[in-house]
Amino acid sequence: MRESIKLYQHSERLKSEIMIGVRLVKALESLRDEEFDGGSKIVSEFFSALNVEVGIAYNSTKDERFREVYEIFSDVDPVEIDSTMEKLRRAMIIIANCALDAYEDLQRAGLFK
Q1: Side-chain-facing half-sphere of 47: CA atoms under 13 Å
Q2: pTM of the full structure
């Protein structure tokens, strides 16, 4: 039960952060020249911070799916907007499945109805 709670908490947090990442990357599309350069540096820092959170989730749960997400985000180049959006999409699917698995376990245990 404890493991399912940790998995659920980390998954929900990461889902929110991935949604923020999507918005940041989408915002890059409207920037030009120096604004784009500065914006892409900020988005790159966001992904570094996001990967720290993914690492924390992995260390806490030992769920290999978090390691997979870590690998997805380890080589993000925000300048490549389409590629970055695809990586965010793939990561969201993995994290949503983590959350669903944990939710179903917790539901069976009677914590969610």
Answers
A1: 25
A2: 0.93
